[in-house]
Amino acid sequence: MFETDADDGARHRIVIVGGGVAGLDLAVSLGRHPALSVTVIDLATAHVWKPMLHSIAAGTRASADVALPYAAQAQRHGFTYIAGRARAVDRATRRVHVDSFALHGRELLPERDIGYDTLVLAIGSVAAPFGVDGVEDHARHIDTLEEAQAFQADLLPRLVEAAHAGRRLAVAIVGGGATGVQLAAELVQMADIADSYGLDGSRSTIDVTLVDRGSRLLPAFPETISTAVRERLERLGVRVRTDIDVTAATPGGLHVAGADVAADLTVWAAGVQAAPLAVDLPRDRSDRILVDCACRAVEDPHIYAIGDCASLTSPGNDRPLPPTAQVAYQQAVHLASALPRHVAGRSIAPFRFREFGALVRLGTYDGYAELGKFGFLSGVVRGRLARFGHALLYRRHQTRLHGLRPMLRLWMSDILVGDLRPAAVISET
């Protein structure tokens, strides 16, 4: 964890900035390659599967149950973990500048410069404020584990206070994509859990409004799923407002065209842009790094970008691949085989994305899946089967990091003791 720039002799230095779905998967795959020295740089000390962040934010899942320390993964899989925020990349000297690292206000590591032979940017994405006034000052984000935990720490005491006082706790969510939709459902589930544990009135206390500028929720899904999800959320008590332009976020909620939205807490989950990193490379309108069909930066053969921060337009398409975990996972698998070939001076096959459909899970209430190209399977699935499919995605991620047998033990542990673990809404208030 505290190594900076070790002497790796003749081994090719691969530095991966970002330990998310794509970055950690790639590091695990390449960590013990005899010709490579692999380093992961991340400000966080633990990895969490990003599709779980809304559950952690709502308090339906405790972060301690799913967080995976990078140091443990590094020791097991043979790569180096460096704690700190990557601030800038100097392409001329091939070095990454890493900020000092502090815990609980105490600086543990100074600023460092990490050299690389090949750099992989897997920095992920954050919500895009679109220039709306007040977003940075008055709206919460849940793009990282730290942000999800901070939101949860603010939300749960407010819920207890409001329930005991007999008043409403209004939460406004901006963004009708998967994050906003799933967070809305998880907030309702959190209130149901609190009710079941004796915090009477929690369900009637929570007041969730979901706002989106588009004409429908989940625009990447078929319209049948968008309609069904909206109807299900409204039956759960979520107020859904589409075709709404937010002009400002304020301490009291949102300014919108027409009637304003009052809120005690506001979450901004709209849009996608690459996470901040100072590197002089061409980008698209969403600030995502332009890459070629090999996932390589268009102006630097020593830099690759994968996942949400990369903008790759496949041949025959006029739009880049979407910033989804599915794309990130497939790009990590591709680079796991391509980078050793690159180091050996061999040709690299182009990345080809395969669409396997999309899933959205509304807590334990419902689930919806659009099946991709599975041969004889197609169409839309909902209910338990869709929720199970969502669970399998997480188990696949665990398998990539731990192996099949450890994943099965973890799954069995979750089944056997899951009911004994109180949700964060109970254990952390």
Automatic annotation (TrEMBL):
Tell me its cofactors: FAD
Q: Name one GO molecular function term.
A: NAD(P)H dehydrogenase (quinone) activity
Q: Name one GO biological process term.
A: aerobic electron transport chain
SUPFAM superfamilies annotated for this entry?
FAD/NAD(P)-binding domain
Q: Which UniProt keywords apply?
A: FAD, Flavoprotein, Oxidoreductase
User: Domain of life of the organism in this record?
Assistant: Bacteria
In this chain the FAD/NAD(P)-binding domain maps to 13-332
Residue ranges annotated as coiled coil are none
- One Pfam family matching this protein: Pyr_redox_2
- InterPro entries per the UniProt record, alphabetical: FAD/NAD-bd_sf, FAD/NAD-binding_dom, NADH-Q_oxidoreductase
Task: State the family it belongs to.
Answer: Belongs to the NADH dehydrogenase family.
Q: What is this protein called?
A: FAD-dependent oxidoreductase
Q: Which organism is it from?
A: Sphingomonas taxi
Q: Taxonomically, what lineage is the organism?
A: Bacteria, Pseudomonadati, Pseudomonadota, Alphaproteobacteria, Sphingomonadales
